[in-house]
TrEMBL record:
Belongs to the peptidase S11 family. Keywords: Carboxypeptidase, Cell shape, Cell wall biogenesis/degradation, Hydrolase, Peptidoglycan synthesis, Protease, Signal. Its EC number is 3.4.16.4. It holds the Pfam family PBP5_C. GO terms for molecular function: carboxypeptidase activity. Residues 312-413 form the Peptidase S11 D-Ala-D-Ala carboxypeptidase A C-terminal domain. It catalyses: Preferential cleavage: (Ac)2-L-Lys-D-Ala-|-D-Ala. Also transpeptidation of peptidyl-alanyl moieties that are N-acyl substituents of D-alanine. Gene3D superfamilies: D-Ala-D-Ala carboxypeptidase, C-terminal domain, DD-peptidase/beta-lactamase superfamily. This is serine-type D-Ala-D-Ala carboxypeptidase. SMART domains: PBP5_C. It comes from the Bacteria. Removes C-terminal D-alanyl residues from sugar-peptide cell wall precursors. Pathway: Cell wall biogenesis; peptidoglycan biosynthesis.
Length: 439
């Protein structure tokens, strides 16, 4: 090898060394990135609560809207921030105020400085101080667009001019409804100091639908143009609405029969959703809390609802007008007859696993006393109750259902003559028994 070539070879060695070191560093960096990503993914997966359905949630629950029966749960009693699902309580209070005639849908609300100053980092309808809008328009903005400023405007209107006045009403309402885990600090749910469990959220959602079924008329609105000058309408954050089946961007999320209720997100809560769907005569309510993305909250909800609709059915265990064993009659005072035949007023139905034969306990019967059942007694008159119990083999939960017991016949009041002879007969029967007891 000539000197020049040797010099060139010597000059190449450092270059090769640098290249080798660079390649090694790139490899280490790539490995670190991949490792970090894997570790992050593993950490995210570890944050989810293990469960048999493979739900990627921190807590969840599925219940029957009719009875409140729990069909599935994951850490249901864990207290967490509900984010904008808080607005369900705000919506409930507005509906209560309207029902009690303290406000009306067409009342004009003047937007306060507090409402107009709502932080811009969340959903809003961009209200300005002094703007005037109807209760109904603001309610729809809250229900459909999850507008924080519209929520605060309504809270100020109902709460004596301040959001905190309304928050006190929220907490008082939660207490009266038995939502023991609930603590509200805002009307919107923007602060992570507002907390509630999935179990109490589902319980509340059921109460809301029972007392104010009109809630669904608003929660299922797909879009709403708040002001005539607005370029675009607000779009419902609930992408799972069954009516979205024909909307290209939401088609993959649309769920048959789903018509409510409320989404939510803040950093401390993750992505959340309280949903409800009805198929046939079965309505279910689900809550998922702490999912990882906007889309995930709907995918996990679909898993829960599918589990409910695919695995449970209603079974009637007692038909209407059934005679209850050992409670076939009830004593009547001053009637043509001394007793009246009684039957169940309606059926008793439980939600059970498909194909299962529910084991129902003997009913607990409570009958009104004779002194309260004074003739005449009308057919269909309530004379007592029977309570049936069913124990879910999977959850261990005992579900009770109470049915009224009614008279199946009219019992007229006895004539004076009849009642007199009955009293005489009762007197001598008592006297005879008293004499027999002496011997």
């Amino acid at each position: 090898m000539e000197e020049g070539e040797k010099t060139l070879e010597r000059n190449k060695r450092p270059v090769r060394l640098v290249s080798a070191i660079s390649a090694l560093l790139v490899g280490l960096l790539f490995t670190t990135i991949i490792g970090s990503t894997s570790a992050y993914a593993a950490a995210a997966k570890d944050a989810f609560t293990p469960n048999s359905l493979g739900l990627e949630v921190q807590s969840a629950i599925l219940i029957d809207a009719d009875t409140g029966q729990v069909l599935y749960q994951v850490a249901q009693d864990e207290v967490r921030p509900p984010a904008s699902m808080t607005k369900m309580m705000s919506e409930y209070i507005v509906l209560e105020e309207i029902q009690q005639k303290r406000i009306k849908w067409d009342d004009i609300v003047t937007v306060t400085k507090e409402a107009a100053s709502t932080p811009a980092d969340g959903s809003q309808i961009y209200l300005a101080e002094g703007d005037k809008h109807t209760v109904k328009d603001l309610y729809i903005a809250m229900a459909v667009g999850s507008a924080n400023d519209a929520t605060v405007a309504l809270a100020d209107h109902i709460g004596g001019g301040t959001e905190q006045g309304f928050v006190q009403k929220m907490n008082d309402t939660a207490k009266s409804l038995g939502l023991n885990s609930a603590h509200f600090t805002t009307a919107t749910g923007l602060l992570d100091t507002t907390v509630i469990s999935a179990a109490d959220l589902a319980k509340f959602a059921r109460l809301l639908l029972q007392k104010h079924p009109e809630f669904l008329d608003y929660s299922k609105i797909q879009s709403y143009k708040f002001r005539e000058r607005d370029k675009e309408p607000m779009i419902n954050w609930n992408w799972m609405l069954g009516s979205n089946k024909d909307v290209p961007s939401f088609k993959k999320f649309a769920y048959e029969g789903l018509d409510g209720m409320k989404t939510g997100y803040i950093g401390a809560a993750g992505y959340c959703f309280t949903g409800t769907a009805k198929r046939g005569d079965l309505r279910l309510i689900s809550v998922v809390m702490g999912t990882s993305t906007k889309e995930a909250r709907f995918y996990e909800t679909a898993k829960l609802l599918d589990y409910g609709f695919n695995n449970f059915e209603k079974k009637t265990v007692v038909a209407p007008k059934t005679v209850v064993k050992d409670a076939e009659t009830v004593k009547i005072n001053k009637g043509v007859s001394k007793t009246a035949p009684i039957v169940t007023a309606n059926d008793i139905t439980f939600l059970v696993k498909k194909g299962a034969a529910p084991q129902i306990s003997a009913p607990k019967v409570t009958l009104q006393t004779e002194d309260k059942l004074v003739a005449p007694i009308k057919q269909g008159q309530v004379v007592g109750t029977a309570t049936y119990s069913y124990k879910d083999a999977d959850t261990g939960e005992t579900i009770e259902k109470k049915v009224d017991l009614i008279s199946s016949e009219n019992v007229d009041k006895g004539s004076w003559w009849r009642l007199m002879f009955r009293a005489i007969g009762t007197f001598f029967a008592g006297l005879f028994n008293g004499i027999v007891d002496l011997f």
